[in-house]
């Protein structure tokens, strides 16, 4: 699959999600690289090989129900606890059932190939506490639960970990062994949802990677703006510029090293590769 072909598939999938959300009055936003692509390229970022969207926690039940009800048979909605008895991460996914990212391995089979399909990552934005100390504690609890989940991983890719990080992971994996992957996922939902009924003024990207558990002003997500991908308008937070600047700095300037961003799909050479 070339990058151009992959982007065609991803655009089809994103449009399917967008159509379902529009029919059901469900709010969602573009996220991360896909949000940057809409702002900077009016298309996908040329070297990006997946799509990211975000859903506010209060909208997530309706989002999930609409997709489970209306997605065609060729596309599936996968939640973190469906990896059980294994654990991969806390990200929900919308993916093509029969479009692999790469040649299948024994590791992929252990995860039911849920992490080896071309698709869309769904990030959930929960409410976060207002105090810095409480926010730090929240991040810590999320990291602990993620570390416990690693006891259910096929393998641990720890080559880049420091000695201290390896020791911490070993302890957390030991802590996680008595608990099922489903218990860990459900416990995580309770932890990140603890402030959902409170008007704290802050939002928390609760299932980002543990190195990037960002907290943002809730006002950025109060209203919706629209940006264009391939001539079609998609929703972004009204505060998308503030959000992307907080995460990436000058996001309108492409990075010098583009190769660092491809981490998912085996891509054949195409003209896009050289852009």
Automatic annotation (TrEMBL):
Residues 21-249 form the LicD/FKTN/FKRP nucleotidyltransferase domain. Pfam families: LicD. This is LicD/FKTN/FKRP nucleotidyltransferase domain-containing protein. GO terms for biological process: glycoprotein metabolic process. Signal peptide: none annotated.
């Amino acid at each position: 699959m070339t990058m151009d072909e992959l982007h065609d598939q991803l655009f089809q999938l994103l449009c399917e999600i967008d159509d379902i959300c529009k029919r059901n009055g469900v709010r969602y936003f573009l996220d991360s690289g896909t949000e940057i692509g809409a702002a900077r390229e009016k298309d996908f970022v040329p070297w990006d090989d997946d799509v990211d969207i975000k859903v506010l926690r209060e909208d997530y039940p309706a989002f999930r129900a609409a997709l489970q009800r209306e997605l065609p048979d060729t596309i599936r909605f996968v939640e973190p606890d469906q990896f059980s008895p294994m654990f991969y991460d806390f990200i929900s996914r919308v993916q093509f059932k029969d479009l692999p990212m790469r040649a299948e391995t024994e590791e992929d089979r252990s995860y039911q190939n849920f992490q080896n399909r071309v698709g869309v990552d769904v990030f959930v934005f929960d409410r976060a506490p207002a105090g810095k100390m409480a926010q730090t504690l929240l991040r810590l609890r999320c990291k602990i639960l993620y570390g416990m989940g690693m006891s259910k991983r096929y393998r641990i890719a720890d080559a880049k970990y420091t000695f201290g990080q390896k020791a911490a992971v070993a302890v957390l994996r030991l802590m996680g062994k008595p608990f099922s992957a489903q218990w860990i996922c459900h416990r995580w939902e309770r932890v990140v949802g603890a402030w959902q009924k409170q008007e704290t003024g802050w939002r928390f990207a609760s299932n980002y990677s543990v190195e990037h558990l960002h907290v943002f002003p809730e006002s950025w997500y109060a209203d919706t703006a629209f940006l264009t991908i391939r001539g079609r308008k998609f929703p972004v937070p009204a505060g998308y510029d503030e959000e992307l600047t907080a995460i990436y700095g000058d996001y309108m300037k492409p990075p010098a090293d583009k190769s660092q961003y491809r981490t998912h799909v085996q891509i054949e050479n195409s003209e896009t590769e050289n852009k």
